[in-house]
Amino acid sequence: MGFLENLRLVQNRIAEASARAGRNPAEVNLLAVTKTLPIDTIRQAYDAGLREFGENRVQEALGKINVLPTDIRWHLIGQLQTNKINKVVGKFILIHSLASLHLAEALYARLGGASQDLLLEVNTSGEASKSGVQPAVAVETAGKIAMLPGLHLKGLMTVGPLTEDSKKQREAFRKLKELFNEIRGKAWAGSAFSTLSMGMSSDFEIAIEEGSTLIRVGTALFGARQ
């Protein structure tokens, strides 16, 4: 099956999940995850009209950013390490994987007068292999990040649990939505706090039903990685 057919199928699944939740599918942004994919494949997605692309590794992403069209909106969705911070500021429209207050402070220290939009990653599955702050401290951590000049907290992100149990997936996404709503009610959050990044190829329909505004899809669009 080719990319264009995969794209149509994903768009149909987004529409159907949105309908089940009584939502407008236009509320759900599709982020194409392009880690390990060659330039030609990304160009095909670009030619099909996609403009939002997500990369996991900073070095790989920078190589692609330098040769692909400048109107692409690049997202960093992989783990951000402190030794790579100097390379990411100003290169990504949104960093999804801010996983601690320590990392936020390190990022703030190296902004140099620039600004950066980001999401706070929350570990809603409780899995030790996952990054992110614990739900119990998410609101407090978000408040402290929001006070750092130049860092613009736009919302929350989570990675769903490694399971086919839809109940556990739904619980993890519902927990993030509850935290999102709680933070959005804070005076310091502001109207720009509007992004709920949750859902990937295996679980994005459940994520949409639970309120996701941005899904990160790779395999369902491009096929299994080699």
Q: Could you characterize what this model shows?
A:
The structure is a single chain. This protein has one domain: TIM Barrel, CATH 3.20.20.10. It starts with a helix and ends with a helix. It has 226 residues and is of the alpha/beta class. The mean pLDDT is 96. An eight-stranded parallel β-sheet has the order 7-6-5-4-3-2-1-8.
Give the CATH class. Answer: Alpha Beta
Percentage beta strand: 15-25%
Let me know the average pLDDT: 96
What is the total tally of β strands?
A: 8
Distance between the termini: 16 Å
Shape: globular
Uncertain residue ranges: none
Helix-strand sequence = HEHEHEHEHEHEHEHEH
- By CATH, the topology is TIM Barrel
Give me some keywords for this one.
226 residues, alpha/beta, TIM Barrel, eight-stranded parallel β-sheet, 39% helix, globular
List the helices and strands and how they pair.
Blueprint (H helix, E strand, L loop, with lengths): L2 H18 L8 E5 L5 H9 L4 E4 L2 H8 L7 E4 L8 H4 L5 E5 L2 H9 L6 E6 L13 H12 L4 E7 L8 H19 L10 E3 L6 H6 L4 E4 L1 H4 L4
Helix pairs in contact: 6-7
Brief sketch in words of this structure:
The protein is an alpha/beta fold. The protein is built from 9 helices and 8 strands.
